[in-house]
Specification:
This protein is an alpha/beta fold. Helix content is about 25%, strand content about 25%.
């Protein structure tokens, strides 16, 4: 009888606690469907896996039609703690745009990855959310170029010119500028990111923006000779935005540094904190670290 009672109590505990544990998972939505990077279906799959492997997220994908404005694209953003964009294509329907602005401004998390910062160059609120962007018709009217000088001081350069540029793909060093932020806390001051496009000449409103890490766009690699933002955040209304221009291709996303940055950035955007430790295989200043693709 005692054994049966113990089993019944255990069963009751599993029934009651199990759903509660499941409900603590953060809900993430990846948006894609159009992108000038043909590898996007693979990179969406990779990012979904990266988030799920933390045990913190359950992840859905919302996909537009493959071309043009998709009038049926109307995700219910309010269901999610964080939205991750792997999208660069035609404008969203006006109703969807307004719903997204309301979502982020009202406290929703948003993660911008690589080509998502090329999107929607003429969408004022989107540019305010992402802080800096490239291409998409961006120019001096979009906002200043933003970078750090050799003394580590923030520069807002209003010079005329287009937004967005990169040299040939290559591995490059990430320099952590704020070691106390939850996303970068514990990272080596310098770590080597795997082969990727190093975006430079990004420009935009850059309001309520905080740079966590930079990469030096060496002129010998076709860059600007400046320290370009590579990991940064934006406060938009009540919402937290995490932005990384890294992640051009599957080999770029296979970098253990990129993976940890995405995982931590998504958790921070969703909750304002990071509970994840850095992985043992995190890159060092002189060693790349790639995981199987």
């Amino acid at each position: 009888m005692l054994r049966q009672l113990s089993f019944a109590c255990l069963l009751l505990l599993v029934v009651c606690v199990g759903p509660a544990v499941a409900q603590t998972r953060l809900r993430a939505l990846i948006v894609d469907g159009q992108n000038n990077h043909g590898v996007w279906p693979k990179t969406t799959e990779m990012m979904k896996g990266f988030l799920e492997e933390t045990g913190l997220f359950e992840v859905d994908v919302a996909r537009t039609a493959p071309q043009g404005v998709d009038p049926k694209f109307k995700p219910q953003f309010s269901k999610y703690d964080v939205v991750v964009s792997n999208y660069n294509g035609a404008p969203w329907p006006e109703e969807t745009r307004q719903a997204f602005v309301d979502y982020v401004r009202g406290g929703g998390g948003f993660v911008v990855v690589h080509a998502a910062n090329n999107a929607f160059g003429d969408w004022k609120e989107y540019n305010e959310m992402i802080g800096l962007g490239g291409w998409g018709g961006r120019n001096e009217r979009s906002g200043p170029y933003v970078y750090l000088n050799d003394e580590g001081k923030l520069v807002r350069d209003p010079s005329k010119g287009g937004g967005g540029h990169h040299g040939p793909q290559h591995p490059f060093s990430i320099i952590v500028r704020d070691p106390d932020h939850p996303v970068t806390k514990g990272m080596p001051r310098e770590w080597l990111h795997s082969k990727d496009e190093l975006y430079d000449l990004l420009r935009g409103p850059a309001e309520n923006m905080h740079i966590l890490a930079t990469a030096y766009a060496d002129k010998s690699q076709g860059g600007t000779g400046r320290h370009e933002p590579m990991i940064f955040t934006v406060q938009y209304g009540q919402g937290r935005v995490f932005h990384t221009p890294m992640g051009h291709a599957e080999y770029s996303m296979a970098c253990a540094g990129f993976i940890a940055t995405l995982q931590r950035g998504a958790e921070w955007a969703a909750t304002g904190k990071v509970t994840q430790s850095l992985p043992a295989d995190f890159p060092t200043a002189d060693r790349e670290s790639q995981r199987g693709q």
